[in-house]
């Protein structure tokens, strides 16, 4: 291979400095998950193809990476495809080849594998089952800025409990994670029940998903959604109602006015789901305020929030950064009543959240919020002056490492300038110099790479000098 | 889907308790890597197919998981295959379909992606480049006990330095990792240069790989390897020499006698590689002893050690557990002089080691060496007595979590027996009970789940009571 090697489009290498930053994000999230009683779970990168297909809609199905069968299984797949499709219609042949030459695929998200896991292990699990999962997922999407074919998801879910205390707890998890990361955020909430109530009120429940998908665009395109409703052929009555609703929503305190108005109308018309949706939202927000003793500012209702995913049935969340230029959400989630039903286990209500690690990374980088010392880097480099000095340094090196300090000895006897450059490039704080003189006198010259200052200390005092 | 879902053969789900144990192993290894100046790197799960093929031998190539092309690329692949192979010879059709319908594949190990990364980013890297990488790899091997299609590798490598100090440092890493894990091990070393010297001495260098592969079986099948040499058609002289060599090796101190004898004969015949191999081994072992001040016991030479992989050119390592029943190695590695040559970057000598996390897991489990408290688990559960009590508990829960203690509130108001069972099953140490009485009196009843003991403390003293 003469040409420079490369990697598949939409995938990334993570260099050491990127890795240390990513680890900082993952570790912060993981520590909070554990503090809230969530336990780690990992599932295989590959799932059986039938576990994944039919779960993400037609578009999602197309984006699943399939694993090619091997050896004789592949040959027999091609034979069968030729048998069933003939060889004249190449498109039909391709389609049946495709079906018969893959029985496994890479996971598309962590939610479906989690549901599969819960059903498969239902007799061993303690419910409510609280798990977190931090693993990559793969989607054959067209790559673009901020959209990759391989990316990590960080999910936490509680399954097997209908209590709204779980929603409260997940809100607290979100707030604590971003507090730890030092990032100002807004948690927005809505309820699918409330949206269903709207559907009943305006008589659009036969097209509820479509109705809700358009509403979800309000945050991006504002009142233009009214035009979208018109184009989609919703009735004049709906358009009038939506317009008034959105006008109010755009005003300060209009959110609350909408809620009060809706509650009154839901009650009048006996629309239970709508009433329940509002009551649940208020209960969750009360719980969060009660636990944290803070006011409403960081947790608010956004009646236009809908979230695309089909499976939500109760409260839904989305988190926006209040710093930096990123508009899209950096965390989201919600309540789902029938996630495991697709695998034959009914009545398992759950609620979960998912952190967007890549987006959080971008915001922290843009706003300069990564800590200066991410940990994990070498603190002290012993310069190499040749075999005798190096052998002597090995002993000191061991003492320094035993004190818990990350340290290394430059392996080759090269010019000092090169060794200093190595320390500089790697962000090493101190260089310990033990040449012939230092060796004789039992001292070590310590150079502070930031200030350039050098001082000689007794070798026994080295650890103290750099701490 | 009515049948119980399952996962592809050879893959595994890792339950929370398994995950906590695995994290303990990975974290221990990672901390040592970082303390020795290795920095993290991650590469994508998928590599371009051409990056991987031709690197693992014919057998390895067959075990690479290929990603099926999508949509029109797949259709056009099938069309081209039909064009080139015709449709009468199904085997030929299958073979050309296969070639034209995959251009990406899952990584087979971490070494080739690492070499690819170094070549691709050679102008940005600081050499010597010390990186560690802990990621899963995939192989379409026939699954069996202890052999999986998805498993993690934990590698550390230094590339761009020929100094033997790197070998010393990696030996120290190995010893420190297993010290931290509390496991007694034996690090065995040999040198490919020494083996090449043997080849010259016995005149088998035209069949060196074959010769070395047979020798490598000595630890498993003992003197039966002599029979294997005979079957493979090696000359009577070789058989005689090998027999004497192995007889001596089997004796106490025979290893040293062999080394002394070989050194003398290498010198007599001017076999430089053999002399170098022995000198290097002695230098590395001296370095380790010098750094740690320990005697030879845990680091020894094993002249029959060969390690299968083609690319080693200098020192090679293998680690065996001295506790438990596992015979195979739990860590291995060595020096390679031309890993990046396959991607067009010559003269980049490197040395690396790889920990076998699955095997280490098995040994620690068998020998009962996992710590009782792996961390990460909930320490305190607040029982749920209904909405009023729960809302009150939320405040205390926050205080407990702020003190860094992992804690949760049972989300549902169910029978106490069920809540206690949840705590038991999840290994939670304490349950905090705040019912109507406790609420009135401002106290909390704390139950120690291990002893069953209950005591009432003021709510303000809760944290102290469980610490």
In short:
Chain A folds into two domains: 16-44 and 107-367, Bira Bifunctional Protein, Domain 2 (BirA Bifunctional Protein, domain 2, 2-Layer Sandwich), CATH 3.30.930; 380-466, Anticodon-binding domain (Rossmann fold, 3-Layer(aba) Sandwich). Chain A is α+β, with helices and mostly antiparallel strands and 467 residues long. Helix content of chain A is 45%, strand content 17%.
What is the CATH architecture descriptor of the largest domain in chain A?
A: 2-Layer Sandwich
Please estimate the helix content of chain A: 40-55%
Number of strand elements of chain A = 16
Instruction: Indicate the radius of gyration of chain A in whole angstroms.
Output: 29 Å
- Uncertain runs of chain A are none
Biggest interface reads:
A-B, 115 and 114 residues
What's the structural blueprint in terms of helices and strands?
2 copies of one chain form a homodimer.
Chain A: H1 16-35, E1 39-40, E2 46-48, H2 49-52, H3 57-62, E3 66-67, H4 71-85, H5 90-100, E4 104-106, H6 111-120, E5 129-138, E6 150-159, H7 165-180, E7 185-191, H8 192-201, H9 208-215, H10 218-221, H11 224-231, H12 236-250, H13 254-268, H14 272-292, E8 299-301, E9 315-321, E10 331-336, E11 350-355, H15 357-366, E12 380-382, H16 387-402, E13 407-409, H17 416-425, E14 430-433, H18 436-441, E15 443-448, E16 454-458, H19 462-466
Parallel strand pairs in A: 1-5, 7-8, 12-13, 12-14
Antiparallel strand pairs in A: 2-4, 3-4, 5-6, 6-11, 7-9, 9-10, 10-11, 14-15, 15-16
